[in-house]
Amino acid sequence: MTATLAVLALAATGCGETSNEASQDDNSKGPAGSSYKGKGIGLAYDIGGQGDQSFNDAAYAGYSKARKEFKIGGVDMEPGDGESSADKVQRLEQLARQGYDPVVGVGFVYAPAVEAAAKKFPDTTFGIIDDNTVKADNVVDLVFHEEQGSYLAGVAAAKASKAKHVGFVGGVDIPLIHKFEAGFVQGVKSVDPKIKIEKRYLTEKPEEGGFSSPDKGQNAASGQIESGADVIYHAAGLSGQGVIQEAGSQKKWAIGVDSDQYKQKALAKYKDYILGSAFKDVGGAVYDLTKSVVEGKPMKGEQRYDLESGRVGFSDSNPKYTAMKDVVAAVEKAEKDIISGKVEVKIVP
Fold first, then answer.
1. Which of the residue ranges 11-25, 123-137, 141-155 would you say has the lowest mean pLDDT?
2. Poorest-confidence range of 28-37, 228-237, 321-330, 333-342?
3. 3-class DSSP state for residue 254?
4. What is the DSSP letter of 79?
5. Residue 41 pairs with which residues in a beta bridge?
6. How high is the pLDDT of residue 93?
7. What confidence score (pLDDT) does residue 207 get?
């Protein structure tokens, strides 16, 4: 462990822990000829941390790709249990003080911390994923049209459902997750307005475990399947593992989120029942931001990714999905309609 990492690890008690996956090459200064002077990328995970097979793991993929391609160092840090906003501020400031640039907060919960840290370190570029409320010259808001990918998930669910009965499980009852629900419901109804839709939010607040409790996801999925749903879409982070496990064990379709969950090793046992995933390329956004900083032209302001950019979409890795020609055709048509502007997807249920 380098001296830098030792300091970070010792300081982790109050502000989270460095990930076991954090690689140690912090003396790298970027590609040959680069004027980059930072130590690398600092990544601070959202609730659930690395290993959630979804949101945080997507961010880690971009972090790893950027480090390898640009030959820079990096540290990724886990959130602490029951931590305060002050802990998040301390984590981001610590990364900036150590010389990491950019410093990325994974998730909207980092908004107050990014705002505070960015003021203290004006020469460091900060990125925040899934929030566009922080406005500063050195802050980049990395946001997505989640509702568009969710619309495609809704179309796929409606076309694949034999029971004409589908389900949605949201991790936390907040505006961001409402976008997933809104797109999904609109997509379902575009196929058949009469299809029944089960809806369930696991918790009211993030700190209550809505994004980090597979057991809650499993219980929600069990209830929806018992009610008659045969396709369930989740937007619940780590809790979504429970949704997929329950659906798979009962031989019902599950639809993943954020990452292509068909490819996740932890879910390999259930992959045959993962119809697809409404992905958003969080890793690509992290990579884009890092590239801009390393090349000396840091991004600024809001960067919003959509279907047309290819950073939002519906994954088709499962051969059982691609074999459903009518489902695939319906999803592809829906994608074209959204990109052309023929269909405008709602962001509020």
1. 11-25
2. 28-37
3. strand
4. P
5. 74
6. 97
7. 87
Q: Which element (helix H / strand E) includes 85?
A: helix 85-97
Residue type present at position 342: K
What's the Cα-to-Cα distance from 89 to each of 16, 112, 199, 219, rounded to whole Å? 11, 8, 35, 34
Q: Which amino acid is at 220?
A: A
The model's pLDDT over 298-309, given as tens digits with 9 standing for 90+, comes to 999 999 999 999
Token pair belonging to 155: 């179309």
The closest of 295, 278, 275 to 287, measured between CA atoms, is 295
Q: How buried is 179 (Cβ within 10 angstroms: 0-12 exposed, 13-18 middle, 19+ buried)? A: buried
Q: What DSSP assignment string belongs to 136-160?
A: -TTEEEEEE-HHHHHHHHHHHHHHH
Return the amino acid letter for 200. R
Average pLDDT of the chain is 90
Residue listed under structure tokens 């990325």? 104
Q: For the packed helices 146-160 and 325-340, what is the interaxial angle rounded to 10 degrees? A: 150
> Which pTM value belongs to this model?
0.87
Contact between 292 and 127 under an 8 Å Cβ cutoff? The reply is: no
Residue 291, number of CB atoms within 10 A of its CB: 17
Task: Check: CB of residue 25 under 8 Å from CB of residue 67.
Answer: yes
Q: Which of 130, 70, 124 is nearest to 99 (CA)?
A: 124
How many other C-beta atoms are found inside a 10 Å radius of the C-beta of residue 241? 27
Q: Report d(CA 137, CA 123) in Å as an integer.
A: 10
Task: Please name the residue that has the structure tokens 């607040």.
Answer: 205
Question: Does the pLDDT of residue 13 top 60, yes or no?
Answer: no
pLDDT score recorded for residue 51: 81
Q: pLDDT at position 75, please?
A: 97
Q: Phi/psi class of residue 20: alpha, beta or left (left: φ > 0; alpha: ψ in -120 to 50)?
A: alpha
Instruction: Quote the CA–CA distance of 76 and 134 in Å, as a whole number.
Output: 22
The helix/strand/coil state of 46 is coil
Give the model's pLDDT for residue 229: 98
Least Cα distance to 255 among 316, 309, 198, 303 occurs for 316
Cα–Cα distance for residue pair 173/111, rounded to 1 Å: 18
| Residue 6 CB contacts under 8 Å (≥ 6 apart), including other chains | none
Start-to-end CA distance of the chain, whole Å, equals: 48
